[in-house]
Please model this.
Amino acid sequence: MGDPRPGPVPTLRRRVAARLRGLADRPRVAALITRLAPGSVRTRTTAAACAAVAAVLLIASAAVVLLLHANLERGVEAGSREQAQVVARLAAEDRLPDPIPLDHGADFAQVTDASGRVVAASQNLAGRPALTPDGTSDGHDTFDLGALGDEHHQRVTTVTTDTPGGPVTVRVGASLHTADTAEDLTTAALGVLSAVLVATVGVVTWRATGRALRPVEAIRSEVAGIGDRDLDRRVPEPAGDDEIGRLANTMNGMLDRLESAGVRQRRFIADASHELRSPLAVLRTQLEVAHTHPDPAVRAEMVAGALQDTDRLQSLAADLLLLARLDATGHDGPREDVDLAELVRAGAKGGARQRIPVTLDLADRPVATGNPLWLGRLLTNLLDNARRHAEHRVTVRLAFDAAAGQAVLDVTDDGPGIAPADREKVFERFTRLDDARSRDDGGTGLGLSIARDIAALHGGTLAVRDVPDGTTFRLRLPALAEAREAPGAPDPAR
Model:
């Protein structure tokens, strides 16, 4: 039986794997791995910068090497051609020495006649047969120069001339060893310099990108730690008016809005709970009294009161549902052209309170685009609010502002005015002012809030205006004008 224990290699492999897992679990190492991940902006930016610089350096280095190569070979070829012309001139004058002396830079020289016999040659080719081409390279003939005893990279120049003994061919070879060495050194230097430059660009880009993204990471960490219970926290805003500073400012603005929305939601829930608790308690008391009281007249009175409170609860629930729909969707129902003058007439004739006359002053008949049911609810809320607080009369004026392209609707009552400090509070949900404008006479405290929300959804505004005696709510809605005067004089509706 073999030994069942694991051998040393698997044990070592498991130890190394466990060690690597332990390193990966450390926060700093994990953060470094995250930063080095290909998906990180820092890594991609550094890689892109290095790739761009490397491509530019590669093209520039190749251009430099090619120009250097061309210049060096041009110089070597010019020297070999000059040597070949000197030898050809001596041969033409029948003064060709043997062996042929070589100038600096020339490796060999050989002169052959028309039959291929060697007439003269340099010392290193003495006794050698005539050179014959064995191929071409860069447009030049190549020769087997193994006879020189070493591998040579040379540029061979061939010149033909006439001599007293007949035409001869002069071949002079100039060594490219110096040019090749210079080219190799230049290539190596450019390679090293390019590598250093790419590495420098990578390091600088890595550090600069990390420094630039550090505020972004701080913003991300802070946002990740913000829960629904601590919306009062804010992200750090770096100094300067750059993109990151504007991002932090935008994030803080969003957090401000979220915090405000959360506060409004909690206050709304608390107010709604309070508003529902009182009528439910009264309703329960009335039903308990009606259930136990022996007098049928008292029971009937209690049941009638319970029905009134039930109506109020139903109205409050409907208003809460409408507000929830406005907050959740922002739009609902079909949109069509609505004749605001007809809408005002229909609203003035209806309503639960007919004791206060409504005087209509319809100078124009503007047409607005929107949900007719919601626009009708907006007008009904304004009229109900005016009738609730008016003492003797309610006036409704409708006109078209051609310069602004808006319909202007004023609903005025002659009841107690609203102090300037409270003119925005009346549009808040469940807001109580003084006794003169309380909700004890049947209002739910949501009508004006619903009216303003509907106006905003239709691109309009609703505000309180100063008037000498009473209160005016002015509604502005985008509309188109129909150039038709409303027939007749001001129309009282009761």
Remarks:
- Residues 330 and 457 are 7 Å apart (CA to CA).
